[in-house]
From TrEMBL, chain A:
<feature type="transmembrane region" description="Helical">
    <location>
        <begin position="54"/>
        <end position="75"/>
    </location>
</feature>
<feature type="transmembrane region" description="Helical">
    <location>
        <begin position="90"/>
        <end position="107"/>
    </location>
</feature>
<comment type="similarity">
    <text>Belongs to the cytochrome c oxidase subunit 3 family.</text>
</comment>
<dbReference type="InterPro" id="IPR024791">
    <property type="entry name" value="Cyt_c/ubiquinol_Oxase_su3"/>
</dbReference>
<dbReference type="GO" id="GO:0019646">
    <property type="term" value="P:aerobic electron transport chain"/>
</dbReference>
<keyword id="KW-1133">Transmembrane helix</keyword>
<dbReference type="InterPro" id="IPR000298">
    <property type="entry name" value="Cyt_c_oxidase-like_su3"/>
</dbReference>
<dbReference type="InterPro" id="IPR013833">
    <property type="entry name" value="Cyt_c_oxidase_su3_a-hlx"/>
</dbReference>
<feature type="transmembrane region" description="Helical">
    <location>
        <begin position="171"/>
        <end position="191"/>
    </location>
</feature>
TrEMBL record, chain B:
<dbReference type="Pfam" id="PF03626">
    <property type="entry name" value="COX4_pro"/>
</dbReference>
<feature type="transmembrane region" description="Helical">
    <location>
        <begin position="31"/>
        <end position="52"/>
    </location>
</feature>
<dbReference type="GO" id="GO:0005886">
    <property type="term" value="C:plasma membrane"/>
</dbReference>
<keyword id="KW-0472">Membrane</keyword>
<feature type="transmembrane region" description="Helical">
    <location>
        <begin position="64"/>
        <end position="81"/>
    </location>
</feature>
<keyword id="KW-0812">Transmembrane</keyword>
<keyword id="KW-1133">Transmembrane helix</keyword>
<protein>
    <submittedName>
        <fullName>Cytochrome C oxidase subunit IV</fullName>
    </submittedName>
</protein>
<keyword id="KW-1003">Cell membrane</keyword>
Length: 192, 82
């Protein structure tokens, strides 16, 4: 494994690589634009948005935020240990990172189950159209992130040629899921 | 110090999340509460980017881009909501 460091001060080498950061900004602007659109629509139907928001479980949202932030913390610890060539510890923290992601998905599934049971589907009203589209799109990112982390984990276990840039790129993608959720949670669950 | 720094950042993030939940549980969704919730979200965003994603060590262009993004998105949201 190549754990040599990269000079991140160079504009062309942000942690995770320039291509991934272009993707991260594209994703952030896409979600940002969708949230702005949601808030704009809420101006036309303020009562519907307020009543719909009350149908969401804020506690689930807050716990999921804690799951993702904790998972992000373990990811950062994993990268830190990888840089110090402590592969055993990096693997351990990577495993904890994935557990955090799985817990997020499990709680999200429970939340979706209750919504579907209550008939609050994507076509219920404008608020729930945004709720389903934005949160499901985010869930897809979390699933893709977990698959990427799983590949890294298998790479660690097989002691294959995993370099720091690849691992940092995987970590940056995972943290991007945190960043997106940090925008979605307050706007969807708390604002209206 | 570096090891403790990540832990401290994580603890701050958890505390800010709890603060956000407490503020939102207050029955009055005032402009002040909305602004407070969005500012806390922006702080959490910057903490994750700077410390977990190590953007603190990156070139100023990337740090500025993150701040620029937050100003655009949060500013637009606050402008519409006011």
């Amino acid at each position: 494994m190549d754990t040599s460091t990269i000079n991140s001060k160079n504009i062309a080498y942000p942690p995770g690589g320039i291509l991934l950061w272009i993707i991260i900004f594209l994703e952030l602007f896409t979600f940002g634009a969708a949230l702005v659109a949601m808030v704009l629509y809420s101006k036309d139907e303020p009562e519907i948005f307020h009543q719909s928001k009350l149908l969401l479980n804020t506690t689930f949202g807050a716990i999921n935020t804690i799951f993702l932030l904790t998972s992000g913390f373990f990811m950062a610890k994993s990268v830190e240990n990888f840089k110090e060539n402590k592969i055993e510890k990096a693997t351990f923290f990577l495993k904890l990172t994935m557990v955090g992601g799985v817990l997020f998905l499990l709680l999200k599934s429970v939340e979706y189950y209750f919504k579907l049971q209550a008939g609050l589907t994507i076509g219920y009203n404008t608020f729930f159209s945004f709720y389903w589209m934005l949160t499901l799109f985010h869930v897809i990112h979390v699933v893709v992130g977990l698959v990427i982390l799983l590949f890294n984990y298998v790479g660690f276990k097989r002691k294959s040629t995993l370099n720091l840039e690849d691992f940092e790129a995987s970590a940056a993608f995972w943290h991007m899921c945190d960043l997106i959720w940090l925008l979605l949670f307050p706007v969807i669950y708390l604002l209206f | 110090m570096r090891k403790n720094l990540l832990l401290i950042v994580w603890l701050v993030l958890i505390m800010l999340t709890i603060c956000t939940a407490l503020v939102s549980n207050s029955t009055l969704v005032t402009t002040v509460a909305v602004t407070f919730i969005l500012v806390l979200a922006a702080i959490k965003f910057i903490l994750v980017a700077n410390y977990f994603m190590e953007m603190k060590k990156a070139h100023s262009f990337w740090k500025f881009s993150i701040i620029f993004y937050l100003i655009i998105v949060m500013g637009t949201l606050l402008f519409i909501l006011k």
